[in-house]
Design a protein that fits this description.
heterodimer; A: 426 residues; alpha/beta; 2 domains; 9 strands; 12% strand; B: 546 residues; TIM Barrel; Oligo-1,6-glucosidase, domain 2; Immunoglobulin-like; 3 domains; 8-stranded parallel barrel; globular
């Protein structure tokens, strides 16, 4: 029998050569990019100053995994290296700071960026790592410290962020991702799909060796899978408050790609993770450095009419699709509220939770194309958003938070419903 | 072996720093002496050094290990007689070893007759030989060097009821170099020793000779003028002799001590030394290359003097605050190891007695541009005793064998000027010359061989340096060149094996010949030259185009 000794690799020889030159590091900062020239320059400088301020003695590297930028993004990243070639690059830095870049062949939405960063972390034996978003315009150098110190000093394996958010920002997180992951996995983790997070080399290595990269389910949203993997493997997780997060809008407000990036990976993970989440009841708070959330009150102009139209149109046009996904009772209730007057519109937390759970179960059963299932959720999510906005349009920060907490509790309360649906559809 | 008659002899020198008191006691009184040192010259010749630098041996109350001189024209009776010194000088010269002695120009002991006269009355003819003041508020911009012991650069003299100026200890009053009589007298002192045959002076504390209000009283033009005058007289009356500056300053300030080749022949490169230790601990060449890139060109007849350790603390004056903190935490976690702005430890304990790191640091010392100085005992890896005060912990007796008093003296142990190192790791039973002579793999033998390789070519002492900047920052690589000769030096500062690609296109066609084993390596071609190095390993390659 012929034994296969050589395998394809996703790391280029040039990148490997750069890693050899970097050598073992204590901390690694990963920066996935794709045409981020407008923001990445200031971000990498902030990262550099954060490393010099908070970790001046540690061996550090910045790894840029680029999805084929044509705007000079990689060059901006590598230009902040500190070495003895560029005279005066930073005479106050104790050490060389390599900032290296590699391009991966697949599309920017693929998981290749995180995979590249994790591979680099493993090859460089990085003890503490952090991934930073190339689009966070409000990044501060201290974020590096807040995400890395719990790993380096306190032995945590994953540090997820909490932010000071605007009242109606991140509604997909507050109305679906956070409450559902909390109910299913039992941890009150506010940002399960974080763009900035810290992790240990141990966790990175474990995830890198998991069979998630080529199984077809890992697309964009791999960061969510990473978080869930840490939970299911019972790694030590904490949250760290970073402050206000502003970001550059990437692709407008197209909801369907956002659902594919978040809800898709979550639903996908439920299958392999079933033994874990099916045994969990209730939820536990996580160790959190700083507050676990802060809400900014602001005036938000919402086109309620447009949201309602999209909801009602969706319910009507996708009726046959919903018949495959939803239970008759849930569909009937949705059709009822779609026909209600604007002032009477209400998408209750119970109905929303049942909707989501039925979608998850249908996804599990693949009653129709899984991607169609995800797409079909979009109009219903808009209906839920409309209800949430209307309920809290005059609410205080505390009111908003109470609303989210109520939703979380509803997800937890109805978890047996999901289990029932899950099993009945097997 | 005749002395090398080249007037640039100091460029090819390998200097061994030793205190007479510490080396060998010939008369059994517990204190090393000139006759003892003379008896050990054969050992030094075998080691391969060709110059010795003797620390102060003048009459002194010894409150600063002899840097507080009470008579410039005699020797301390504990070390022997002036005739003994002459014999030592002749014997050293017979063995091809030059002799460098200390000359403390800046200050005397407060026991020196000059100071006793000066303080005796305001009208004494020598009153103006020192710097006196009615107040202690002059020269406010001047830093205090011995921070741990001194609160001011002025000290009150109850006898003359006025303040006198001192940059070092208060028992070391500064001479007044604005007084022409002082300048003339100090040249007479130097002439006395030069006429005897001394080859060079290590001039102590030279930046501080002159004081001026509104300045930091360091590196002043008036000081340089005085030093230039000494150099002019030296060249006129004693050609071929050498002046070595002790000026703990930044490279740009140090540069001025070379003048246009008309001031000092040599100067210590103080800022480089701590950065070599820093680079090793960080496993990063950045501190070393940066300070060398900041080091200005010096006149062709001049030379840097390099050292790893000496009789003083590992000075951290010429580093930034963040670097100093790092050095303290890395090399002197125990605060008793710290003194003033430095670390009072020997080479081997600083490097955890790690033979590979000791070799690497000596390899750097021998291959970077300059003349290396080896501190006595470091060639066998001697330890220190931090329980002894001040810097005495690095000034313990030389360890010659594992027998009585380590072979240093036949005196009773409690008669020794300082206790021998006795701990299990560095004590004289474990670390001594005799045992290392008998072991082919000893540090002593290794030092002999690296010195021999260094002396096999003038390129290390006189050649230029070109850094290669490989992308692997743990590798410090450079090419030393002199005429048609090129030597490639590659150092792995890391405790792990490293691969490095060197851009040697400029040397395409050359065959690297490793200088210690004489083995040839693959010829240099168009592609990056790939080398792998073990932990802390280094290579010296002679590049031959054949």
């Amino acid at each position: 029998m012929e034994i296969k000794l050589a395998e394809d690799t996703f790391l280029t020889d040039d990148f490997l050569r750069q890693l050899i030159n970097v050598g073992e590091v204590d901390i690694l900062v990963g920066l996935p990019t794709h045409n981020n020239a407008k923001t990445v320059g200031s971000i990498v400088k902030t990262i550099q100053s954060g490393i010099l301020r908070w970790f001046p003695r540690e061996r550090a590297v910045i790894i840029n995994a680029d999805g084929g930028s044509r705007d000079g993004t990689p060059e901006l990243v590598t230009s902040i290296s500190i070495d003895d070639v560029r005279r005066g690059s930073n005479p106050y830095a104790l050490r060389t700071l390599h900032s290296i870049s590699t391009k991966y062949a697949s599309s920017p939405e693929s998981p290749a960026a995180l995979r590249t960063i994790l591979a680099a972390a493993e090859l460089l034996q990085a003890k503490a790592c952090v991934v930073m978003s190339p689009e966070s315009s409000s990044i501060e150098g201290e974020w590096i410290s807040k995400l890395l110190r719990p790993i380096r000093d306190d032995g945590f394996d994953l540090v997820t962020p909490t932010y000071r958010r605007h009242r109606f920002e991140g509604l997909l997180i507050t109305n679906l991702l956070y409450p559902m992951t909390r109910a299913l996995y039992g941890l009150r983790l506010r940002e399960p799909y974080a763009q900035e997070f810290g992790f240990s080399g141990r966790l990175g290595g474990e995830f890198l060796s998991q069979n998630v990269w080529d199984d077809g389910t890992a697309g964009s949203g791999i960061e969510l899978r990473f978080t869930l993997a840490a939970i299911t493997a019972r790694h030590r997780i904490c949250q760290s408050f970073l402050g206000q997060k502003d970001h550059i809008e990437r692709r407008g407000s197209d909801l369907v790609p956002a659902l594919r990036e978040t809800v898709g990976p979550l639903f996908s993970a439920l299958e392999p993770d079933f033994p874990v989440w099916s045994a969990v009841t209730g939820s536990q708070p996580l160790p959190t450095i700083g507050p676990d959330h802060e809400v900014l009150l602001d005036l938000v102009r919402v086109n309620r009419k447009r949201l309602r139209e999209m909801f009602t149109t969706g319910v009507a046009e996708l009726a046959t699709v919903f018949q495959s996904i939803l239970s008759p009772a849930t569909l009937a209730e949705l059709q009822r509220i779609a026909g209600s007057g604007e002032s009477d519109f209400e998408y209750s937390t119970e109905l929303w939770v049942k909707t989501v759970y039925e979608f998850a179960a249908s996804y599990h059963q693949s009653v129709i194309s899984r991607d169609h299932i995800i797409q079909a959720l979009a109009p219903l999510f808009r209906g839920r958003v409309l209800a949430f906005l209307m309920e809290h349009r005059n609410g205080s920060a505390e009111d908003v938070e109470n609303g989210i907490e109520s939703l979380c509790l509803e997800f937890e309360r109805l978890k047996p419903y999901l289990l029932q649906m899950w099993k009945s559809r097997e | 072996m005749p002395l090398n008659q080249d007037v640039l002899w100091y460029k090819d020198a390998i200097i061994y720093q030793v205190h007479v008191r510490t080396f060998y006691d010939s008369n059994g009184d517990g204190i090393g002496d000139f006759q003892g040192l003379e008896q050990k010259l054969g050992y030094l010749q075998e080691l391969g050094i060709n110059a010795i630098w003797l620390m102060p041996f003048f009459p002194s109350p010894l409150r600063d290990d002899g840097y507080d001189i009470a008579d410039y024209n005699a020797v301390h009776s504990s070390y022997g007689t002036l005739e003994d010194f002459r014999k030592l000088l002749d014997s050293a010269h017979d063995r091809g070893i030059r002799v460098i002695i200390e000359m403390v120009l800046n200050h005397t002991s407060d026991q020196h007759p000059w100071f006793q006269e000066s303080r005796s009355s305001q009208d004494n003819p020598r009153r103006d030989w020192y710097v006196w003041s009615d107040t202690d508020s002059r020269y406010k911009g001047t830093r205090i060097i011995f921070l741990d012991t001194e609160k001011s650069n002025w000290a009150w003299d109850p006898i003359s009821k006025s303040y006198y100026w001192h940059r070092f200890f208060s028992h070391q009053p500064d001479l007044n170099y604005d007084n022409p009589a002082v300048r003339e007298q100090m040249w007479k002192v130097m002439s006395f020793w030069l006429e005897m045959g001394v080859d060079a002076f290590r001039l102590d504390a030279v930046p501080y000779l002159v004081e001026r209000e509104g300045t930091n009283c360091e590196n002043l033009p008036e000081t340089h003028a005085i030093l230039k005058d000494l150099r002019r007289r030296l060249d006129e009356q004693f050609p071929g002799r050498m002046l070595l500056a002790e000026a703990n300053q930044w490279p740009a300030d140090l540069r001025t001590y070379f003048g246009d080749g008309d001031e000092f022949h040599m100067a210590f490169h103080f800022p480089l030394m701590p950065r070599m230790f820093m680079g090793l601990k960080l496993e990063d060449r950045k501190p070393i290359t940066e300070i060398l890139q900041q080091t200005p060109e010096i006149p062709p007849t001049c030379q840097w003097s390099l050292f790893l350790r000496n009789h003083d603390e590992l000075t951290l004056e010429m580093v930034t605050d963040i670097e100093r903190d790092y050095m303290y935490d890395s090399y002197a976690e125990d605060k008793t190891m710290r003194l003033n702005l430095g670390i009072r430890r020997r080479l081997a304990p600083l490097l955890d007695n790690d033979r590979r790191r000791i070799e690497l640091m000596n390899g750097l010392l021998m291959s970077l541009p300059g003349t290396p100085i080896i501190y006595y005992g470091d060639e066998i890896g001697m330890g220190d005793n931090i329980n002894l005060g001040d810097r005495n912990g690095v000034r313990t007796p030389m360890q010659w064998n594992g027998g009585w008093n380590g072979g240093f003296s036949t005196a009773e142990p409690d008669q020794l000027y300082a206790p021998l190192i006795q701990n299990p790791v560095y004590g004289y039973p474990a670390v001594n010359v005799l045992s290392q002579v008998g072991s082919g793999h000893s540090l002593l033998h290794w030092m002999q061989s690296i010195i021999a390789v260094r002396r096999s070519t003038a390129v290390f002492g006189r050649g230029s340096i070109e850094f290669l900047h490989p992308a692997n920052h743990r590798i410090l690589a450079y090419v030393r060149r002199l005429g048609n000769e090129s030597v490639l030096v590659v150092n792995n500062l890391s405790g792990a094996a490293q691969a490095v690609e060197l851009d040697l296109r400029r040397y395409k066609g050359n065959i690297p010949i490793e200088m210690s084993g004489k083995n040839i390596f693959p010829r240099v071609g168009d592609l990056p030259y790939l080398l792998t190095l073990g932990p802390y390993q280094f290579f010296w390659f002679r590049l031959r185009r054949i």
